[in-house]
Amino acid sequence: MRRIAVLTSGGDAPGMNAAIRAVVRTGLDKGWEVCGVQQGYRGLIEGDLITLDARAVGGIMQQGGTILGSARCPEFTTLEGRRIALQQLEKHNISGLVVIGGNGSQTGSHALCQMGFPVVGVASTIDNDLYGSEITIGVDTALNIALEAIDRLKVTASSHQRAFLVEIMGRNCGYLALMAGIAGGAEAVLIPEAPIDPEAVAAEIRTAYERGKAHAIVVVAEGAQYNAEALAQYFRDHHERLGYELRTTILGHVQRGGAPGAFDRLLASRLGAAAVEELARNNLGVLIGQIQGQVRATPLAEVVAGHKTIDLRLFDLARVLAK
Question: What is the pLDDT of residues 151-160, one digit of tens each?
Fold first, then answer.
């Protein structure tokens, strides 16, 4: 009987549990034994593995986070740490590993592959910055959480004639902020991929006020040239009369929590099952993601070397629609 393992690594993303469930049940359907590695690569080095059966993953699809946990593991970035991880995999008779996570996680996957161990990655991060998948597990749910927050802020902002600077996660990728800004009807969207002129942003806010709008929403990606607090301080120092009373809101980790939506449950189920199929076909050292609506396998070497970009035409659209 073949024995495989699955782990989640990096920041948690809504839908990770659905991916775990898909890996386990697809593996069981093949007559394999499936183990879960607890606390990511740290658990791998420590040999913290548990057996997962169909019952163990029952009822987890609708849960946010990851039942296996995730933890930082600086030791795994060293050659000696990875050697220990390989020894643990051999000790537990693991013949293949599925790694669910984002950029750092898949860099780890690639490192194990280079040492000769069979690994398949599954694209999962709310940042949507992973090369090899147009959309990753967790993005859709995080986007809807951000959109709900913007909608709520609009209500209270309109009651008090306020402008809100709303900071959204995404590390150095502006995808989440850009999509939330367009869908939320923001007056301005600030992302790392485009230069920021704070004077132009101030002008947008002032124009909205002069047009009689009861509120103004500026969406700021956390990796932008100015974060929400820095931009707010700039406005306080240079613009006493924006028209609106100014407030900042940092959504932070709330975007990672909560139940995954239907899209993420479906995406995670498809990608998790496909990862097991790739192991069965011995198509190893690949990332499973979605490209043009289809499940695709991209070599991990390309994933770690690649750089994902966003369509800046959408940034232009955000500016047009904000006028």
Answer: 999 999 999 9
Q: Is the pLDDT of residue 1 over 90?
A: no
What is the rounded average pLDDT for all residues in the chain?
Answer: 94
The answer to whether 264 is a known catalytic residue is: no
Instruction: Tell whether the model's pLDDT for residue 291 goes beyond 70.
Output: yes
Dihedral over alpha carbons 21, 45, 30, 56 (to 10 degrees): -40
Q: Say if residue 86 is in the same domain as residue 104.
A: yes
Provide the residue range defining the domain that includes 223: 140-256
Q: Both 205 and 69 in a single domain?
A: no
Structural domains of the chain, count: 2
d(CA 54, CA 25): 6
The answer to whether 126 touches 13, Cβ cutoff 8 Å, is: yes
Q: Which residues pair with 221 in a beta bridge?
A: 168
pTM, entire model:
0.94
Judged against a pLDDT cut of 90, whether residue 239 lies above it is answered with: no
Return the CATH number at 113: 3.40.50.450
Structure tokens at 52: 């997962």
Residues 6+ apart with CB under 8 A from 199: none
Catalytic residue among 12, 48, 127, 264, which? Answer: 127
Q: How far apart are CA 5 and CA 94, in angstroms?
A: 6
Cα 26 to Cα 18: distance, rounded to the nearest angstrom? 12
